[in-house]
Design brief:
The complex is a heterodimer. Chain A is mainly α. Helix content of chain A is 65%, strand content 4%. Chain A has a two-stranded antiparallel sheet. Chain A has a two-stranded antiparallel ribbon with strand order 4-7. In chain A, strand 2 and strand 3 form a beta hairpin. The relative contact order of chain A is 0.08. By secondary structure, chain B is α+β, with helices and mostly antiparallel strands. Chain B has three domains: 45 residues, no CATH class; 62 residues, no CATH class; 157 residues, no CATH class. Chain B is 34% helix and 22% strand. The longest helix of chain B is centred in the N-terminal third of the chain and has 20 residues. Chain B is elongated and about 115 Å long. About 5% of the residues of chain B have low confidence. The chains are: A mainly alpha, B alpha+beta. Chains A and B meet through strand 1, helix 1, helix 2, helix 3 and helix 5 of A and helix 1, helix 2, helix 3, helix 4 and helix 5 of B. Strand 1 of chain A pairs antiparallel with strand 1 of chain B.
Chain lengths: 526, 296
C-alpha cells in the first residue's frame, strides 16, 4: 500500500501547508473585496498582519514568546543612559526571529476571484514570512559605551557638586567670609585654566579615540565571531578566547596557528630589522669611503626605493617574482633553470614520503621557481621576503647613517691616523660605536615597526599559501600576526580572536617600546 | 558649627546637584550644577518612551523591515459577520455551522465578537481541516486533473487514513519506508541504489527498495535521476516514478519509469515498443506531494 504523509508544518516551517476550508476561503475573499474598494486603505501590510495573527493563534507559544521577548523594556522604553548600561551588561537579549506563515497561504492568501460578475484582484505584496530584527549586540555595545562614557562626565560633575557644597561650607565656618559666585568662577578659571582648555579636546577624544579602543578591547571577551554575530547577538564569554591560545587540538586550531605565526613574526621582525639596519650601514660606509667617486649620484640612486611609495614597489615585487614573472623568464633564459634542475631544486615532483629533508629544504618549485607561493617550502618564501625587504628598508638607514657619519668629529679620525690606526680599526672603534649610540633607539622602534609590517607581507604575498583555510585557522605560510588579523577580521569576521591577538601585540610591542623610551636620555630627563 | 552640617550640605548636593550650593547661598553656582543634572535627566527622558504605551505589536508595526502593518479592528469582525449573516439570509451562501456555533458563544462575551475571536476561529478551523496523517496515494490524489477523493478538503477517510498522534501504533506497525526522490541512482543487480556520504566521509550506496542493503561500490555505467513526479497505471494499479537521463549538457529526457515499490520492475521509456504503455500512464498531482514524500 502506498501512503502519502501529510504534515502541514514541520518545526514551524511550511511542509505541505494548511488546507483551505470553506470558511477560510470566504474570509480571504471578504478581505480581498474590502481591499478592492477604493476607500479601504487596506494594504498588503495589513494582510500580512492578519496572516501573522492567525499564525500566532495556530501557535499560541509563538505569540507568548513574541509578546514577552520582542519588546524589551530596557531596549525599547528606557532612555539613553539606562539602555546604555543594560546594553553593556547584557549585549542584548532578543535574537532575530522569522515567522513563516506561508503554510497558511493555501487557506488564506488573497486570490483573484469572480463574484456576481465582478473580478476582484488579489492583494499583492503578501509575504511568506515576517522578519523581525532582534538586538544587534555590536550596535548596543557601541552606543552603550558612548552613553556610559558620557555618564562618567556627569558623575564627575555630580561628585564635584557634592564635594563643593561640603568644602564651601567648611571654609565659611572657618573664615566667616562668603565667597560670591563671581569670585568662585574667577577662581576656578584662574586655577583650572589648563583643564578648561584641555576639556573640549578630552571630551572629543573620549568618543573618537577612547571609545573605539575600549570597544576593540572588550570584543576579546565576547564570542563576536562569524556572520551571524555580525548582524545579531553575541555574549560575554570572559577569558575563554585567551584560553583558546593554549587549548591545543580543539575546534579551529587557533592555538597551534598562533604560536606558529608568533614565532615567524618574531623571526621576521628580528631578521628584517637586522638585515635592513646592517644593509643600510654597509651602503653608508661604502658610499662615505673616500675612494668612491660621484657620492651624490650613488646616494640619490640608493635612496630612490625609499622615495617611491612602498605600496607600489611591493606590488611591483609581487608581479616581478610571480611564477610566470620576469625574474623566472630571465633565469630560464640565461640557463639558471638548467643548473637548478641538475641540483634537484627544480623540475622534481614534490613528494612527502620519497624526498629527504635536504631535498625538501632546497625544493623551489616544480616547473617554475615559486618565489612567493611555494606550497611546500615555506622557509624559502620567507627568506625571499626578508631579502626583498632589504631593498625596501635599507635606504632609510643608509640616509640616516650617512648623516650621522658626516657629523662625526673629523679630529677623531685624524687622531686615529696619527696613532697609526687601520681603516678597520677606525670603523670598529670610532664609526661603529658612534653610529650605534645614535641609532640604537631607532633600531628598537624599527623592530616594533617590522613586527607590525602589514604592507610587505600582505601586498607581496597576500599571506601566502593557505590563507583563509579553516584547517589552519585562516593563516597563510607568510602571515605575521597583523596580516593574519586582517584576514580574520575583514574576510572571516573572527573579531574576538583578532582582538585577543591585538591585545597581545599591544602588550608585546608596547612593553618593548616603553622599555626603549625609558632607556633614552630624553625620557630620563623629563 | 557642627561638622554634620557640612556633611548634610554635601549629601544634599549628592542627592540633587546644586541643593547644597543653594544652602551655601551660592545661587548661580547652584543653578549651574543643577543645569548639568537637568541635562542628564533631560537626555534620559528625551530619548525614552517612559510615558508612552509601547509593546511588541506597536514595535513590529513601526519596524519598516517587518512588512507588517496595523491589524483589522473589532468593527471589521462585526461587519464581516453582518455580511456573512446577510448572505446566508439571502441564500447566497450556505451557512457554516461551526462558525455559527462559535459566534453564538463569543458574541455573548463582555467584549462581543472581536477581531481576535475571528482570528482564533480561523486558526482553529484551518487546523481542524489539516490533520497530519497518512492517506492512500491513489485514493486521494488528483488523477490527471480529475479530482478524486482529495486531501485538499481536509476530509478524513475514517477507514484508510492513519492519523499522526492517534494511530501511532498502526503507523509504527506499517513500518513505512520513504520513496527516494530527487536522487541520482545506480543500477546493481536490477535494483536501484542511491548515494549517501557517511559520517566518516565514505560514499555508500543504498538500495531504494531495502534501506538495510548498503554497498560501498557500484559499477556506475548505468546511472540516472529519479525525479519527484509519479505516474499511475490504472490497469495494473501500479505507481511509477519518472526517471530522467541527460541526453546532452542542456537537455534530459525520460529514461524509464520505475515501480516505486520495486525498482526491478520498470518501463523502459527509450524502447518504442513501450510507447502505448507510457501513453496510458496518468500523471499524479497532489497538494500534499509538494514536499511530503509518498511512503510505501
Amino acid at each position: 500500500m502506498i501512503y502519502i504523509q501529510y504534515v502541514p508544518e514541520v518545526d514551524y516551517r511550511k511542509d505541505a501547508g494548511y488546507n483551505a476550508t470553506e470558511f477560510s476561503m470566504y474570509l480571504r475573499n471578504y478581505i480581498t473585496k474590502r481591499a478592492n474598494a477604493a476607500t479601504s486603505g487596506l494594504t498588503s501590510k495589513n494582510y500580512n498582519r492578519f496572516l501573522l495573527e492567525v499564525y500566532f493563534s495556530v501557535h499560541p507559544e509563538l505569540r507568548t514568546d513574541f509578546e514577552e521577548n520582542y519588546y524589551n523594556w530596557f531596549h525599547d522604553t528606557a532612555g539613553f543612559f539606562v539602555k546604555g548600561f543594560w546594553s553593556v551588561i547584557t549585549l542584548g537579549k532578543t535574537d532575530k526571529q522569522y515567522y513563516y506563515y506561508n503554510s497558511l497561504h493555501d487557506a488564506l492568501k488573497s486570490v483573484r476571484f469572480v463574484e456576481g460578475g465582478i473580478t476582484y484582484t488579489p492583494v499583492t505584496g503578501v509575504l511568506d514570512y515576517t522578519p523581525l530584527i532582534g538586538h544587534t549586540s555590536q550596535f548596543l555595545l557601541i552606543s552603550g559605551l558612548i552613553s556610559t562614557l558620557l555618564f562618567v562626565y556627569f558623575i564627575f560633575i555630580w561628585i564635584w557638586s557634592a564635594w563643593d557644597a561640603y568644602a564651601t561650607s567648611i571654609r565659611y565656618a572657618a573664615t566667616k567670609v562668603r565667597v560670591t559666585d563671581k569670585e568662585w568662577f574667577l577662581n576656578v578659571y584662574a586655577h583650572g585654566f589648563e583643564y578648561i582648555m584641555i576639556l573640549p579636546a578630552l571630551f572629543v577624544i573620549t568618543f573618537i579615540s577612547i571609545m573605539p579602543i575600549v570597544f576593540g578591547f572588550l570584543i576579546a571577551f565576547t564570542n563576536f565571531s562569524g556572520f551571524d554575530t555580525d548582524t545579531g547577538r553575541f555574549v560575554w564569554v570572559g577569558f575563554q578566547n585567551f584560553a583558546r591560545i593554549f587549548s591545543f587540538g580543539e575546534g579551529i586550531p587557533f592555538a597551534e596557528t598562533f604560536w606558529k605565526v608568533l614565532m615567524w613574526t618574531v623571526i621576521w621582525a628580528i631578521a628584517s630589522t637586522t638585515t635592513v639596519f646592517f644593509g643600510g650601514m654597509f651602503q653608508a660606509v661604502v658610499i662615505s669611503s673616500e675612494r668612491v667617486p660621484f657620492k651624490k649620484f650613488w646616494r640619490t640612486l640608493l635612496i630612490l626605493p625609499w622615495a617611491v611609495p612602498a605600496l607600489i614597489s611591493q606590488m611591483a615585487f609581487s608581479i616581478i617574482f610571480s611564477e610566470h614573472g620576469v625574474v623566472n623568464e630571465i633565469l630560464q633564459g640565461i640557463g639558471v633553470y638548467d643548473v637548478l634542475n641538475n641540483w634537484g631544486m627544480l623540475g622534481v615532483e614534490y613528494s612527502e614520503s620519497a624526498m629527504t629533508a635536504w631535498q625538501k629544504f632546497i625544493w623551489l618549485g616544480q616547473e617554475n621557481i615559486q618565489w612567493f607561493n611555494n606550497p611546500q617550502n615555506e622557509w624559502f618564501v620567507r627568506i625571499v621576503l626578508i631579502v626583498v625587504n632589504i631593498w625596501l628598508g635599507a635606504p632609510y638607514f643608509m640616509a640616516l647613517m650617512t648623516s650621522i657619519m658626516t657629523s662625526i668629529d673629523k679630529t677623531l679620525y685624524e687622531a686615529a691616523d696619527i696613532d697609526g690606526a687601520t681603516p678597520n680599526q677606525k670603523f670598529k672603534f670610532i664609526t661603529f660605536p658612534l653610529i650605534m649610540y645614535s641609532t640604537a633607539p631607532i633600531l628598537v622602534m624599527t623592530f616594533s615597526g617590522n613586527f607590525n609590517n602589514f604592507g610587505v607581507i600582505y601586498f607581496i604575498t597576500q599571506g601566502g599559501v593557505g590563507t583563509g583555510d579553516i584547517s589552519r585557522a585562516y593563516a597563510g605560510d607568510t602571515d605575521i600576526l597583523i596580516s593574519w588579523m586582517y584576514t580574520l577580521t575583514v574576510t572571516k569576521r573572527v573579531y574576538n580572536m583578532a582582538s585577543v591577538f591585538s591585545i597581545l601585540i599591544f602588550l608585546l610591542v608596547g612593553s618593548i617600546a616603553a622599555w626603549n623610551f625609558s632607556q633614552t636620555r630624553a625620557f630620563k630627563e623629563d | 558649627m557642627s561638622k554634620s552640617k557640612h556633611m548634610l550640605k554635601g549629601i544634599a548636593s549628592a542627592i540633587l546637584p546644586g541643593l547644597g550650593q543653594a544652602f551655601n547661598k551660592q545661587f548661580i553656582k547652584a543653578v549651574v550644577f543643577f543645569g548639568f543634572f537637568a541635562l542628564l535627566i533631560g537626555i534620559e527622558l528625551g530619548t525614552s518612551r517612559y510615558f508612552t504605551d509601547y509593546d511588541s505589536y506597536i514595535k513590529m508595526e513601526q519596524d519598516q523591515n517587518s512588512g507588517v502593518g496595523e491589524m483589522f479592528t473589532d468593527s471589521f469582525a462585526k461587519n464581516f459577520y453582518l455580511l456573512y449573516q446577510n448572505q446566508v439570509f439571502l441564500d447566497e451562501i450556505d451557512p457554516i455551522e461551526a462558525f455559527d456555533e462559535f459566534y453564538a458563544i463569543e458574541s455573548l462575551d463582555a467584549d462581543g465578537f472581536t477581531i481576535r475571536d475571528l482570528v482564533d476561529f480561523t486558526a482553529n478551523d484551518i487546523v481542524a481541516h489539516s490533520t497530519p496523517r497518512y492517506f492512500l496515494l491513489v485514493d486521494d490524489l488528483i488523477v490527471s486533473g480529475t479530482t478524486g477523493r482529495t486531501s485538499d478538503t481536509g476530509e478524513i477517510d475514517e477507514v484508510n487514513d492513519l492519523i499522526i498522534g492517534e494511530d501511532d501504533a498502526a503507523i509504527a506497525a506499517k513500518d513505512f519506508r520513504e520513496v527516494v526522490t530527487g536522487m541520482t541512482v545506480y543500477v546493481v543487480g536490477g535494483h536501484e541504489y542511491y548515494t549517501l556520504t557517511s559520517e566518516t566521509e565514505d560514499t555508500l550506496f543504498i538500495n531504494v527498495d531495502d534501506p538495510d542493503d548498503i554497498i560501498d561500490e557500484v559499477d556506475d555505467d548505468q546511472s540516472y535521476y529519479r525525479t519527484g513526479t509519479f505516474y499511475y497505471h490504472p490497469a495494473t494499479d501500479k505507481v511509477y516514478i519518472e526517471c530522467t537521463s541527460a541526453d546532452s549538457v542542456l537537455s534530459s529526457g525520460v529514461y524509464r519509469y520505475t515501480n516505486i515499490t520495486d525498482s526491478t520492475d520498470f518501463i523502459d521509456a527509450t524502447d518504442e515498443a513501450n510507447d502505448a504503455l507510457v501513453a496510458s500512464l496518468k500523471k499524479l498531482k497532489s497538494k500534499a506531494r509538494r514536499s511530503s514524500t509518498p511512503t510505501v
